[in-house]
Amino acid sequence: MNSRCAACKYLRRRCPPDCIFSPYFPSNNPQRFESIHRIYGASNIGKILQQILPHLRAEAVESMYYEAQCRLADPVYGCVKIIYQLNQNIHHVHNQLANIQAQIAFYNAQMHGNNQIQNAELPAFVGFNNSLADQGNAFPHPAPPPSIRPPWPM
């Protein structure tokens, strides 16, 4: 035993050969243990690691480290804020996809001469932000011919 792990160094104790912390908290990265210790406490970290199967402990430590970093950065919401933002992004992209699929269906119907849809309008999707279309010439392409132009302004 040449050097103690980061956990034993931080806790100022001797590092036993079977230390549960040593595989996950090497001595060259003390900040990792410090941040997890601030959120969970050394005793709780040890209890958590002992309750988990050995092959899953590395992932558990990674998860605790990520959650601790998020909690230190945002003490109120922690990683829940990031999860919420990602869910909002998914919802927004689903709305965009639905709108684009409706536009494709509209253009396909027009191209195949479906007269029932020629004067119809596309359904409006809740929460869809057509910001790219509002940017004017964001996409340098020629305007479609009048026969297949959609009823909404381009």
UniProtKB/TrEMBL annotation:
Transmembrane segments: none
Domain LOB, residue spans: 3-104
Origin superkingdom: Eukaryota
Name of a matching Pfam family: LOB
Similarity annotation: Belongs to the LOB domain-containing protein family.
Cross-referenced PANTHER family: LOB DOMAIN-CONTAINING PROTEIN 23-RELATED, LOB DOMAIN-CONTAINING PROTEIN 4-RELATED
Protein name: LOB domain-containing protein
